[in-house]
Amino acid sequence: MDTLSLLMDGFAGALTVQNLFWVVLGCFLGTAVGVMPGLGSSMAVALLLPVTFALEPTAAFIMFSGIYFGGLFGDSTMGILMNTPGQSSAIASTFEGHKMALSGRAPQALATAAIGAFIGGFVASVVVVFFAPLLADFSTKFGPAEYFALALFAFVATSSVVTNSAVKGLLSLAFGLGIAVVGIDSVTGIPRFTMNSPYLFDGISLVTVTVAVLALGEVIHFATVARFKSEGQMLRSQGRPWLSRAEVREAMPAWLRGTAIGLPFGVIPAGGAEIPTFLAFGAERKLDRRRPDPQFGKGAIRGLAAPEAAGNSTTGMAMGALLALGLPISGTAAIMLAAFRQYGLQPGPLLFERAPDLVWSLLASFFIAMVVLLIINLPFAMVWAKLLLIPRPYLYAGITVFCGLGIYATSGSTFDLLMLLGVGIVGFLMRMHDYPLAPLIIGMVLGPLAESSLRDALISADGDASVLLSGPISITLYAVLLVVLLLTLRSKVTSRTRRDV
């Protein structure tokens, strides 16, 4: 009953006129950037991070969560109508979703995606309400050794498990960790890697790096490479934007299975929603093969329903892991963790004690966001698709101006603008050579936590490294990480063997 009463207090805070406005605005912005390929929720949060410090923390995080959820709602629209997914999390939805559109069922495909995202996100929000406080209480048992193990798990999983090339993922992670150690050492007070420049004594701003690699790097990529690529033709959506009873009965088991598959991945630092969406799609395809009349390859509604539910359930649980453990499982979550720290807040058990109004208002806003997103996506998907008609040069020019204004507004330093340009060029080169960006961001966000935890653990044990393996929690984390790595290695070896055959 305490949880329900706290949730009701959260609804009282989230349903104020001011916070309701930020929920709706976040949902609109998230859907808009989700529809347009190459943008995504991580870029939107990175761009808005410098200009939202004037807001109250509750309002800012309510808007960020709306953007996070809305990005997944909008990602599949491009994939269904143009066979070009907005983000990697929507790739699995594209396979059968676009085939539905080609067969004249585009409205039903868009409705299936919207309802699946709603179900996955809503169920995850219910689980988070009851699960996050328990997880936060459990995290009080974490010491420096356990937090180091958790950070190491996130580093290895995001850099080697979910990337096509483990080498590129680890190099991206190393770059992020390298950026994180620039500045004055908090323990010794000695400048590190500053080249005696006073501009670097405070370190390199995470806001500058995220805006540079996610937004400015994408702008440079468009200006030099992407604008020469032709895009597919968007299919028109005509007919009823809802599902019949037979279609609902067909899709419902897939929605529920996809939701169940996505929930655990919200607390596993495995790169976000990409893995669970493919797992959900694969599970439905295996079940379809047993049917007397297989539908996959012809526009199977279950092949679209399951990945959409899995993606949003993962995102919902990711917010719970972020609040309870301070553990980001994706690039967007990592940026939100940085935003918490910019406001002087540290996610974890202390956040539930010191800022309960923020936590429970944010949790209540998840439910409101799901309803708002269903309302603005179910009947109006084709209206959002018209955003694709915006000339790309105008769109990316506006993003460039917003990058510069946002960074200059937070620091007032010309040096930060030069840093923005330099890191943006690095982000463009990484994108050109297919280096993942999420390990860089997570390395920069969790690098200080890993370093301080390692130091504290070794100091408390007089330099004895065995303390890192002394507790059951840290041993369990290392064991799970080893199993994940072995399974990933086996999967890659098997797939390579099949290609050779």
> H/E order of the elements?
HHHHHHHHEEHHHHHHHHHHHH
Strand order of the largest sheet: 1-2
| Low-confidence sequence ranges | none
Radius of gyration, rounded? 22 Å
- Distance separating the two termini: 59 Å
Average pLDDT, to the nearest integer? 80
Question: What does the largest sheet look like?
Answer: 2 strands, antiparallel
Keywords: Membrane, Transmembrane, Transmembrane helix
Transmembrane segments: 20-39, 46-69, 109-135, 147-163, 169-187, 199-223, 261-281, 321-340, 360-381, 393-409, 415-430, 437-454, 466-489
Domain DUF112: 20-442
Organism: Kocuria varians (Micrococcus varians)
What this model shows, in words?
With about 500 residues, the chain is an all-alpha fold. The protein has one domain (about 1-495). Helices cover about 70% and strands about 0% of the residues. The chain has helices at about 1-15, 15-35, 40-50, 55-80, 90-100, 105-140, 145-160, 165-180, 205-225, 245-260, 275-290, 300-325, 330-340, 350-355, 355-375, 380-385, 390-410, 415-430, 440-460, 470-500, and strands spanning about 185, 190. A two-stranded antiparallel ribbon has the order 1-2. Strand 1 and strand 2 form a beta hairpin. Helix 2 (about 15-35) packs parallel to helix 4 (about 55-80), helix 3 (about 40-50) crosses helix 9 and helix 6 (about 105-140) packs parallel to helix 12 (about 300-325).
List the helices and strands and how they pair.
Blueprint: H1 2-14, H2 17-35, H3 40-48, H4 57-82, H5 91-102, H6 106-139, H7 144-161, H8 166-180, E1 183-184, E2 191-192, H9 206-224, H10 245-262, H11 274-289, H12 301-325, H13 331-342, H14 349-354, H15 356-377, H16 381-385, H17 392-411, H18 414-432, H19 438-460, H20 472-500
Antiparallel strand pairs: 1-2
Helix pairs in contact: 1-15, 2-3, 2-4, 2-15, 3-4, 3-9, 3-13, 4-5, 4-6, 4-12, 4-13, 4-15, 5-6, 5-12, 6-10, 6-12, 6-15, 7-8, 7-19, 7-20, 8-19, 9-17, 9-18, 10-11, 10-12, 11-12, 13-19, 17-18
Protein name: DUF112 domain-containing protein
Keywords: Membrane, Transmembrane, Transmembrane helix
InterPro entries: DUF112_TM
